[in-house]
Amino acid sequence: MRIEARAEIVWHYGDPVKAEAIAGAVQVDNEGIPPGLKKSLNVVSLSEDGDVITKVKYSGEIETLIKALDDLVFAVKIAEEALNV
Predict the structure, then answer these.
(1) Three-state DSSP class for 33?
(2) Domains, the chain, ordered by start
(3) Which residues, other chains included, contact 12 with Cβ-Cβ below 8 Å and sequence gap of 6+?
(4) Is 41:33 a contact under the CB 8 Å cutoff?
(5) Is 2 helix (H, G, I), strand (E, B) or coil?
(6) In the chain, which residue ranges form alpha helices assigned H by DSSP?
(7) Beta strands 41-48 and 51-61: pairing type?
(8) In what order do the strands lie in the sheet with 51-61?
(9) Is 31 exposed, middle or buried (0-12, 13-18, 19+ CB in 10 A)?
(10) 79 DSSP 8-state letter
């Protein structure tokens, strides 16, 4: 099924330094999106006032969006774990 979607996902940390580190790590992963997928998927992560805000814009098959969001959540989880070590 082909869809068009926009989403804003906010992770609340309450710590600007932690949020900046996580947003930076996730944004690097966002920039690694394969060239063929970049035409239909735009993902940007930034930090603001202790939060990580990720904006997603997508046009295509819903399964691909689900995989991209799953990858995003996994990247955030890995960044959180790296900061807690």
Answers:
(1) coil
(2) 2-84 (3.30.310.50)
(3) 50, 51
(4) yes
(5) strand
(6) 16-31, 35-38, 62-84
(7) antiparallel
(8) 2-12, 51-61, 41-48
(9) exposed
(10) H
Cα separations in angstroms, 24 against 3, 27, 47, 62, 80: 29, 5, 8, 27, 12
Residue 71: alpha-carbon gap to chain centroid: 8
Q: Which amino acid is at 15?
A: D
3-state secondary structure of 39: coil
45 bridge partner residues: 54
pTM summary value: 0.88
Q: Which residue has the tokens 């920039």?
A: 31
pLDDT in tens, the chain (85 residues): 889 999 999 999 999 999 999 999 999 888 878 888 878 999 999 999 999 999 999 999 999 999 999 999 999 999 999 998 6
Residues β-bridged to residue 56: 7, 43
